[in-house]
């Protein structure tokens, strides 16, 4: 067999290696489109109070159940509230709990996973067992158990999403750590008598963080979706606070969905584009840094 | 084989212990079932203090009637809530071993009866969703690997990427709006009249769940197939002049099913508990809806019973997945 | 004289990649008479495997192929386009180098033989199984009726390669291409397998192309040997001629890498200096020049055309070994201590 010739595939297909090579060199156009969309949504969310949009909670801002491109840009809901304004304000909480949630998941899950992967032995066995147990719960049931009895503020919802992420993230962190802990440079550090803490911080962390970067994006998408799931169970952020999940639930009441479907579809579309952008950007970064395993 | 099963049984027991302990702990730490049994009485704390001898029950003596503390005390004794958490956990565990899952705080019905009534609906939804997922994903996955890089493959890659980015509740809402409300082609909610109506009314929710899983399956199968297609035995089969169809289905498919089977196990395990959200959207009275209600009402026995069922299902399904591996690859059988 | 069974004319195979075009095969010509055995010898990247895969229509879709391949009157490339049934596997077939990976790990050995029979010849299950057992017996697999129900991982490497051979021979092909059929098995098993293949070929009047990096394997079995280097056929001759009187410096160098029975056993084997040629956008020069002890300025100007006696002893070299021109070139280089490409050479190394 020749080494230089790529016999990558057989039954009538493409020489994928050539494509992969082209991809690996740069992140690609699609990546930047995705990042731009995420930037735009984040900016709109941050600046919502100062944007020239309607008050999202003002009842009868327009005629109730007004369609898209009527008096209100994206129409109004059953109470005459402006759908466009509500979607932008919804981004604040959806992106907020998504980001905060995954951050918590990564910090705690990452720390647990690195500890398990690095120290091995009993530490690893105990952690792995708890993680396995947690994974035997469907994630929403777990979220349900946590949120049900709490007052559901922005922070508790974010925390719930974070806790749900801990188990799968720690599994990824553990796998990555084990993979790197075997490498020469970590072994070398051990041989010259470096302290565990120093090895973890100086040698392992930077390497484990790279795949974690891709995970932040992918996991944020999952958290945003999970907030929507909680909203359907009536367990998202309480009160007047607006999230995409809550907006979708609002628009999903049979009468609204039938005659006034944009109330649900506009936030669905916003969530879809955002999650897709996160998935796409995350996938690209993962391929870019070449990490095979996924936690989810 | 016997050792394999024995190991699995031990694993199942350990997982059940740990899962129920976590659930038990979370419920007790975060909620008080008394509130839901006797209603949200401010008197609970008050009576706790009376019981602890910290104050006298002036309320009862003043009104000279059956006071709240008495009601609360009775309720506590009835449901065994006057004992410490750990003791209650082990009592519950002992009952489970004898097959007694307890009685609902809310409806006073045996938990096993509730589960027996709700679980089949969720299982039916799960089975239908998996059938749809496999029926969609396997042919498309095989064809997209066969035509890798060509138009059909690119189109399906985009489609499955899109599907993966749609949360299932969003797809549920869209499908509900289009197929059930606007066009009334299919029912919007569960109809328990007969087996036929059950299947008919589960088509939409099963499709929603199935398509989401199908996207994952398709991607995994395509990737694994592309790896398999580089194997020498595929070259060999071509050199033997076998048709492409024969090579794809008879040679390449089976060794390429491992990732798909793994995810099949995980998703089946997850769906045993029903899909909480989809059951809600399509008004399916399955075990998912039941858990949601039970958790909100702090109906401990129902929540714990359901969690036991789900976790058992998860472990058992993964046991069968391991058996499937050995069927897929005779080399696993040997080792 | 009738047409040869197989004629390959001006075969070019290129693979466009992101780093440039890989020119894997560059204008290869050869013929094969019915019942003959041709050895194609070369190192990794020489284009020998790509040539075989082109014959078998096993190249990836991105490969650009040019040239004519005529097999028993059929234009093979046209057949490939029509995807004609019952051509490969029936008329022409191939065995690969690694028996560990050539067999599908999840199918029983018997099934892998019978599927060919059932598809191409329309045999029913029982007939096909009986034939499979017969075939396994012919290739020297002990207890064949037991083996058909076994999985490949239950067999040793040597046995597996025998199963692969049985698989390839099932439909009695008239040409068998064997791509390094013995590199992956034990040395002790190698000779027995090669003798088996040779015997089967003679019994069946089958032609064979043996692809190998080892000239020693070709010796005594092949009628003709073609040596490939950098995607080109650099020398082709009847086996004995090639061994006794090689022309191309690369062949000469290859010969020095194998132990010879007519030399004292402690004779040093000479590795070939330098690295295999670059296949991506190669320069217009003799590909072997950078590693050649005979290299002269004219070797770098153009690619040497194939010369010699057509159909007898062909070679592509301006300064062939064992000729006056070659000796002059070598003497000049020895005197200078290095060749035109800067390769350091010494007088004592390798007087043929």
Explain what you see.
Chain A has eleven helices and no strands. Chain A has helices at residues 16-25, 29-47, 83-119, 121-135, 139-147, 154-181, 184-191, 196-232, 244-251, 254-259, 262-289. In chain B, helix 3 crosses helix 5 (68-79), helix 7 runs antiparallel to helix 8 and helix 15 (287-296) runs antiparallel to helix 16. Chain B is built from 17 helices and no strands. Chain B is elongated. With 335 residues, chain B is an all-alpha fold. Chain C has 352 residues and is of the alpha/beta class. Among the domains of chain C are: 92-172, no CATH class; 244-336, no CATH class. Helices cover 33% and strands 21% of the residues of chain C. Chain C has helices at 48-55, 76-82, 99-102, 109-121, 125-138, 144-147, 157-169, 187-204, 215-218, 239-244, 249-256, 297-301, 324-336, and strands at 6-17, 20-32, 37-41, 64-71, 74-75, 92-95, 175-179, 207-212, 224-229, 232-238, 307-309, 313-315. In chain C, the strands form two sheets. Chain C has an eight-stranded mixed beta sheet, sandwiched between helices. In chain C, strands 2-1-4-5 form a four-stranded antiparallel beta sheet. The longest helix of chain C is centred in the middle third of the chain and has 18 residues, at 187-204. The model of chain C has no long low-confidence stretch (mean pLDDT 86). Chains in contact: A-B, A-C, B-C. The B-C interface holds B 231-233, 235-243, 246, 250-251, 254-255, 328-331, 334 and C 56-58, 85-90, 93-96, 98, 101-107, 115-116, 119-120, 151, 153-154, 164, 167-168, 170-171.
Report how far apart the termini of chain A are: 38 Å
What string, H for helix and E for strand, traces the elements of chain A in order? HHHHHHHHHHH
Give the count of helical stretches of chain A: 11
Q: CATH H-level name of the domain at 112-334 in chain B... which superfamily?
A: MetI-like
Describe the SSE topology.
The complex is a heterotrimer of chains A (296), B (335) and C (352).
Chain A: H1 16-25, H2 29-47, H3 83-119, H4 121-135, H5 139-147, H6 154-181, H7 184-191, H8 196-232, H9 244-251, H10 254-259, H11 262-289
Helix pairs in contact in A: 2-3, 2-11, 3-4, 3-6, 3-8, 3-9, 3-11, 4-6, 5-6, 6-8, 7-8, 8-9, 8-11, 9-11
Chain B: H1 2-30, H2 33-38, H3 43-51, H4 58-63, H5 68-79, H6 85-97, H7 111-146, H8 151-165, H9 168-182, H10 195-228, H11 232-239, H12 244-252, H13 258-272, H14 276-281, H15 287-296, H16 300-328, H17 330-334
Helix pairs in contact in B: 1-16, 3-5, 7-8, 7-10, 7-13, 7-16, 8-10, 9-10, 10-13, 11-12, 13-16, 15-16
Chain C: E1 6-17, E2 20-32, E3 37-41, H1 48-55, E4 64-71, E5 74-75, H2 76-82, E6 92-95, H3 99-102, H4 109-121, H5 125-138, H6 144-147, H7 157-169, E7 175-179, H8 187-204, E8 207-212, H9 215-218, E9 224-229, E10 232-238, H10 239-244, H11 249-256, H12 297-301, E11 307-309, E12 313-315, H13 324-336
Parallel strand pairs in C: 3-8, 3-9, 6-7, 7-8
Antiparallel strand pairs in C: 1-2, 1-4, 4-5, 9-10, 10-12, 11-12
